[in-house]
Amino acid sequence: MPAMKPLAALLASGLSLLTLAACTAPGAEIEPLTAEPAPAAALLWQAETAAGAIRAASCPPGDSAPQAFQTLPLTAAPLTPKQADVLSGRLPAGARLAGAWELGADDPNFGGLSGLAVEDEASLLAVTDAGGWVRIALTGGAPASASIAYMRGAGGKFLHGKLENDAEGLAYRDGVAYVSFERDFRIEAFAIGTCGAAAKAVEIAALPAAFEGKPLDANEGPEALTLTPEGHLRFGFEGASTSVSPVGRVLADGSAAWSGARAANPAGFALVGMDSVRLSGGTDLDITLFRAFDPLRGARSVLRWGPGEAGQLALSRPALTDNFEGLAAQTLDSGDLRLWIVSDDNFSNLQRTLLYAFDVTPAPGAE
């Protein structure tokens, strides 16, 4: 992939960066995700400020005619009543199952869904860890059809090879998709709302390659990505060699740094997804998704939207589960949240692509 100058560096105006808090010392208590400190907000990358330049670079006038996604022959089989009952039985009070489906398509390129975002009220957008886009159209809150496209680099060529196309995290706002990549740790933006599948990658930031002085493995990278209500990009790495999941943020000059926060991983679990929403009362809430796997217990997940057992869902056998990696949250008119999770089948016939939706009532004062 040709070298790309981070877009945010073009937008910065000579800001002098403050030194961010150091990472939590080894052995210290792991703190949950928190809102960005107000004094640092002016030094953080901001989506609203960057959006115009992203669209111009991703869809240059006269050079990127809009291209539609290709139709996928999607199948969406609801869980059986028994499977749905077992799944619902795991939910705490204040949460309910809004829908659960096993997705499939007669197309070898369908699968590997590793990042998820709410595109609008009628569609979800996913990325695959082979550099693909998958749009899932919703009818009555259920998956009805799908389409697919493939990511392009800054020069317009398709991303090629695992080093370039291992897309993992996804955030979306105002027609711009932000994607975090493993292997080559970075965040790129694609103005798919402007020119669809023709959108070219615009580099937002290269991400740290080491944590607490130790290099990170290529497969320990930024699985989680969120755009906060204020428009700041936060990323979370799956797990460092210290068995913690460090969290960082993109700065106004186009660099990225650890914020000092770590995800509150359950023991033995790694961070794979996060999203941020503003509740009806004006407070901001972080939602996180964690996963674990071992041969005896198989794939396990923890979806957390609040404190304690009342604010989380633990998925394991005999509930129908798989390698859940993608997470997206949306606010409902009722004030509740709809939380979507999707599993990455690794393009394997031995795994499933599951799409689950849960409606949850945030605890009073949740943040």
CATH architecture: 6 Propeller
How do the strands of the widest beta sheet line up side by side? 1-7-6-5-4
Q: Give the biggest beta sheet.
A: 5 strands, antiparallel
Q: What fraction of the residues are assigned to beta strands by DSSP?
A: 35-45%
Q: Could you name the CATH class?
A: Mainly Beta
Output mean pLDDT: 88
Structure description:
With about 375 residues, this protein is mainly beta. It has a single domain, classed as 6 Propeller (Neuraminidase). It has helices at about 5-10, 45-60, 80-90, 160-165, 190-195, and strands at about 70, 75-80, 95-105, 115-120, 125-130, 130-140, 140-150, 165-175, 175-180, 185-190, 200-205, 210, 215, 225, 235, 245-250, 255-260, 270-280, 285-295, 300-305, 310-315, 325-330, 335-345, 355-360. The strands form 6 sheets. The chain has a 5-stranded antiparallel sheet with strand order 1-7-6-5-4, with no helix packed on it. The protein has a 5-stranded antiparallel sheet with strand order 2-3-24-23-22, with helices on one face. A hairpin with a 4-residue loop joins strand 9 and strand 10 (about 185-190). The radius of gyration is 19 Å and the shape is globular. It starts with 6 loop residues before the first helix and ends in a 7-residue tail after the last strand. Residues about 1-30 and about 35-40 have low confidence and may be disordered.
